[in-house]
Amino acid sequence: MSRYLKILLLLLPLQLSSVTARADGGDFSLPFDFPVLFSGNFAELRSNHFHGGVDFKTQGVIGKPVHAVADGYVSRVTVTPGGYGNAMYVTHYNGYTTVHGHLEKFMPAIERLVRERQYKDETFAVDISFGQDEFPVRRGDVISLSGNTGYSFGPHLHFEVRETESNELVNPLFFYKNHVRDTKAPKAYEVALYPRPGKGSVNKGTKRCTRKINGTTIGDTLRAWGDIGFGVKAYDYMDNTSNNYGVYRTELLVDDSLLFSSTMDRVAFSENRLINAWVDYEAYYNRGEWYMRSHLLDNNPLRLLSVDENRGWLRVDEGRLYRVEYILADIHGNVSRYKFYVKGERCDIQQINSRAAQYFRWDVDNELRDLGMRLKIPKGELFEDAALRVERTEQPDALSDRYNLNGVTHPLWRGCELSIRMKKIPAEGIEKCYIKYVRGRGGYGVGGVYENGWMKADVSSLGCYEVAIDTVAPVVRPVNEKQWARSGTLSFYMSDSETGVKSYKGYIDGHFRLFKFSSKNVRLTCNLKAEGVSRGTHSLRLVVTDRAGNETVIEKTFKY
Question: Are residues 399 and 321 both part of a single domain?
């Protein structure tokens, strides 16, 4: 029996003595019985999504007992090689469901059921739902052990609070803000000014201008005319930790009038990709910088944001100084203020040629055709009008030409349909062909279906695409093979750089044995003792298949 399972079996359900927090009629206790710190907070800016919960630090180790935060029942568990890794969902009677991610172990009874399902289906990844009467829990019960599984790069507990009826994510700090010390206000580092396309100018130009903040202001006065928007790069901080966090509330005032505010209270999963409409996507895509816009693009229904009648855009139409102020606050009430001026200075504003053949409007269905490419962007997928350009690179010996859509800085909400005409059908078969997103010397497959000489796929972003073929089997190679007998763990590096690994199965002496895969270090491992393999000489057969049907088979004898 593992050390972690022993802890779970020996620990009786504990009732936490700490005072519970309360919000919206529900109350939760802490998931740990030690003082808590956070390494991440709610709605922090992430690639294509908001951070859905808070990350509890676990004192740098795995195996900390995780307690139920309120009465309820375990309604679901999932095991995945990435994402949340081992995750547990607990539905509570107060109207909320909590999600616990990156766990090392579930409670013993659920751990056994997961293992049974993995062996029944001969798969590592599982998703199991439970009824209300199967695994009831009381506040304080030990329900799991914290870990570092999935796409986690350090021991911690990812913790979400979801409204059960709507499945919307709610800020957990509503319940836990009294359990952490926070006397530090958010801090802003830079501001940005955005001329509205065709309607505004900053410093007599059409490009974004940024300025670093010195203390509580910027060093000079920017000149503008017409409609301009603002943005800010800022982070929050807490006591007793060096981590930075997302800002809970941001306000933008001009001449003491509120133009914009953002409040990180709750978010729906369908709103996640709207983060790309809120942030300066070009700055993030090209330089990894997060600027939060303080104005709305034409198509941005994100509920976290509130604007005035001009959608947060400032109309500069007088030759005077406009007093601008940012107010940043955290959920504990710590506030910081930053003030600067914008000078109204009349100038000519460059107009947009909205009649150009490749000018796409966000509020209508759009279709772009080239000699061998078709792009269909439905109404509402763009966040603003966009002038797209297609650059075709002829590839005489390839399956298709390459098409570079210059819209990489024009993100999509959900996606669009892309079709590329094929020049030939390869001898290896059409089933091995796919549409490839090309970036630099690399890229990745986005799938594809062949129809009458065209390869068609749904893509979630614009960029550079071509039709490619995957005839290369996944790469599978032993890691530290000489240490297998001593460590009792078989380890392999496994990857597929084209269409990706679809499935894998491992057999020892002809019997299925569970191999676990971690996407963060692309390692496939089998703990021989845990999987019931006895000491001696054994035969291994490992079969790995990619999404194009290419297969790698490893057969070898090993000693344990």
Answer: no
